[in-house]
Amino acid sequence: MDTSLTPTDLFSPSKARQQRAQAQDWAQIESWLRYKYAGRSIPTFERNEETLKALRALALANERADEERSLIERVEQDALKELQETDINPADAKILNTITSNLTPEGQRSLDALASTAIALETPNTDPETLAHTLIQHTTTASTLSNQLNHLQTLQSYLNTQLSSLRSDLQSLQSPAFTTPSSLPRQTTDWSRQTRLLRSKMREYEDKLATLPPPTPSSSITSIKPSDLASAAGLASLVEKERELVVLRERVEKLEEEVAQFRHLPTDKEAARKEVRKREVELDGLRRARDGLFEGLMEK
């Protein structure tokens, strides 16, 4: 019992009820222990709420076990009494004794095996066909259970493999390679500041573009009015402009080919001039060599 009571607890109805219930429980436990030890001294133990709870559970389980054992004993006694009171037909007893006495040892063993098989298979009789069907059914059930067990073992192995893989993935995800860098907050702040600056610049440029005058047509094709396209003169003018555009495109392509010949020159103007002079000197040397070879051929 709890001896650490305060004056407030003594005048508390709920605390008083709890103490009375606990005292009754301890009285029942002590009575049960005296019954179990049958006159022997009860061992000393610590008395607290945890011990009381454990002893109550133990006493309840013990009482249930005693009731079950008593019920089984009563059923067995009733069954034995019923068997003893059953009248045995003298003719059946005589036939049984005759068969038993005339059986060979091998026949006796066979009869015992047949009876044991019928009891093990829980068949209502010892008919061979019934025993065979029951045995086949048990064999089929055993085979099915064996297959299911193999399937469950395979599934368990697969699940264990997946669990190991997931644990490995989790361990790799918890490694320093996947941890957040310490500089991430600073980078986030910098990116946010740059985003705000770019947004303000974008609004500024949009305002400047809005204040610019509309662009003038750079091509004479755009100077043709849509109303002039319906007339023959307008169509002829459009064809002429298209021809000019084709000529202009060919000229641009030719200029691009000429410019492509200088693609290996340096971007610096002075360096490009030096490279051109160097190539000119090489060209003059090649020309002189060519002229010398030509003169040699003429002399021969």
How would you characterize this protein structure?
Among the domains are: 89 residues, no CATH class; 30 residues; 33 residues. About 2% of the residues have low confidence. The protein starts with 6 loop residues before the first helix and ends with a helix. With 300 residues, the chain is mainly alpha-helical. Helix 2 packs across helix 3. It contains 9 helices and no strands. The radius of gyration is 56 Å and the shape is elongated. This is HAUS augmin-like complex subunit 1. Keywords: Cell cycle, Cell division, Coiled coil, Cytoplasm, Cytoskeleton, Microtubule, Mitosis.
| H/I helix tally | 9
Distance between the termini: 141 Å
Q: Kindly provide the radius of gyration, computed on alpha-carbon positions and rounded to a whole number of angstroms.
A: 56 Å
**Overall shape:** elongated
- What percentage of amino acids are in beta strands? under 5%
- Give the low-pLDDT segments: 217-222
Order of helices and strands: HHHHHHHHH
* Extended strand count: 0
Class from secondary-structure proportions: mainly alpha
How confident overall, as mean pLDDT? 80
Largest sheet: none
What oligomeric arrangement do these chains adopt? single chain
Helical coverage, percent range: over 70%
Family: Belongs to the HAUS1 family.
Pfam families: HAUS1
Main location: cytoplasm
Organism: Lepidopterella palustris CBS 459.81
